[in-house]
Write a sequence for this structure.
């Protein structure tokens, strides 16, 4: 059995040696500077020699570090060539994403053409969360919620921007519909109502409306279709109904807009963060979410 330090530790050393900087290596490897420092300390303990010397002028390789760096670089080059020789040309990678159905349908689907053009070697599989899914099979998850996940990497993509809307047929002579006259449409999330109506009414200073009344639906799409049919009034994230607002099929009841507290988060497990396909998707999604 080979007595070697971990490949990850050697990879960290290679990056620090290349950049002569712990902080720049940390950026490249997408880890903390402290994690880089610990890996270098472990390698130095394993070898019994110092690999870097620190001075006011910066970080330099010791004699031992200068001897190791080119040999290690050649070893990594050799491994890469061996793997590339066996890799099937133009092999497409599959990136599996779990996402809320309405967000995937109404927002993500409109953006995917750009992703596919940028990264033609990555095939996307977008599915709804399923309790039978193996976590190992999911590369990343788009999650609707109030806060970051407790584990892994969790990045806020965008906050919801709620407005109250109705079908034009519920307006009378240009006047917005009476909130007391029509049913309020509610969205369930995890078998509980989202408090979007309560938040919107509070921002309006309306304490004369019973937010508990109305109709409940299990998906946002059902609420949107009911509102389009004139079946009631809805408070919806305007980013989910941009087309309906643009073509006048839904009209704002007032200009009032409530930001949050709900948002869409990108969650990536620790063991998936180093995958290039995940990194490319994460970078792309951050760009298109905040143009």
């Amino acid at each position: 059995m080979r007595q070697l330090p971990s490949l990850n530790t050697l990879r960290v050393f290679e990056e620090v040696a290349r950049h002569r900087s712990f902080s720049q290596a940390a950026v490249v490897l997408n880890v903390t500077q402290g994690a880089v420092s610990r890996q270098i300390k472990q390698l130095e303990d394993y070898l019994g020699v110092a690999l870097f010397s620190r001075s006011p002028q910066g970080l330099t390789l010791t004699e031992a570090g200068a001897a190791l760096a080119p040999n290690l670089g050649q070893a990594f080059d050799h491994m890469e060539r061996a793997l590339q020789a066996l890799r099937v040309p133009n092999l497409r990678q599959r990136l599996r994403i779990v996402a809320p159905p309405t967000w995937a349908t109404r927002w993500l689907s409109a953006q995917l053409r750009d992703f596919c053009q940028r990264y033609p070697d990555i095939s996307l599989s977008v599915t709804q969360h399923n309790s039978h899914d193996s976590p190992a099979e999911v590369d990343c998850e788009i999650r609707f919620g109030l806060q970051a996940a407790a584990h892994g990497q969790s990045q806020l993509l965008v906050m919801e921007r709620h407005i109250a809307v109705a079908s034009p047929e519920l307006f009378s002579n240009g006047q917005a519909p009476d909130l007391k006259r029509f049913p309020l449409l509610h969205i369930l999330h995890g078998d509980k109502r989202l408090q979007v109506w309560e938040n919107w009414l509070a921002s309006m200073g309306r304490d004369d409306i019973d937010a508990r009344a109305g109709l409940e639906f299990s998906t946002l799409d059902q609420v949107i279709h009911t509102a389009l049919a004139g079946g009631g009034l809805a408070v919806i994230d305007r980013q989910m109904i941009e087309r309906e607002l643009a073509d006048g099929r839904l009209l704002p009841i007032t200009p009032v807009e409530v930001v949050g507290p709900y948002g869409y988060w990108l969650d990536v497990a620790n063991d998936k963060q180093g995958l290039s396909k995940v990194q490319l998707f994460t970078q792309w999604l951050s760009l298109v979410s905040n143009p």
Remarks:
- The chain has a mean pLDDT of 84.
- The CA atoms of residues 60 and 137 lie 42 Å apart.
- The first strand starts at residue 52 and ends at 55.
- The radius of gyration is 26 Å.
